[in-house]
Amino acid sequence: MAKSEKGSKRAERVESDGTALNTSVESSARDQVAEALTKATADSYTLYAKTLGVHWNVQGASFYGLHNMTEAQYQELHEAADAIAERIRALGKLAPTGNASFRELTVIDNDAPHKPTREMIAELVDDNEKVARRMSEFAQLADEAGDLFSHDMLVARIGVHEQNAWMLRASLSD
């Protein structure tokens, strides 16, 4: 058997609906990567919801700039959560749904009551940094699993979260 045929046989798995899944990523690795992506989806969606809440509730002299910046960030987070969830589906797993599931899987605390604008922005800085670090862990796992697509997606997320943290942090220096 040729090496490429052997590799494709290893990657094939029959799913519960009877269809064969034969991606570029081996079956056991798909499970690990999908689990990491499930957490990444929860982080992205929870940070989306929290950023949207900040967008709605910012006040003060920096209102207009913060309102527009958080709008751009929550819109990007919404698209990112969707893309990550769709990657989970491409790997043959179900994407997470529901607030209880997200709360269990995420590193973001979004249960706090409304706070002054400066505190909300400082929390978003911390949250984006936490998510960037987690995306780095997940990217490394995807790389080790040979999942180049997920790896690249997660590496791109690191850059977005680090840029978001920088922009938010810069707004605190008034």
Automatic annotation (TrEMBL):
Pfam families: Ferritin
Biased composition (Basic and acidic residues): 1-16
UniProt-listed InterPro entries: DPS_DNA-bd, DPS_DNA-bd_CS, Ferritin-like, Ferritin-like_SF, Ferritin_DPS_dom
Chain intervals for the UniProt region annotation (Disordered): 1-29
Domain of life: Bacteria
GO molecular function terms attached to this record: ferric iron binding; oxidoreductase activity, acting on metal ions
Ranges for domain Ferritin/DPS: 35-173
Signal peptide: none
Family classification: Belongs to the Dps family.
Protein name as annotated: DNA starvation/stationary phase protection protein
Lineage per the UniProt record: Bacteria, Pseudomonadati, Pseudomonadota, Alphaproteobacteria, Sphingomonadales
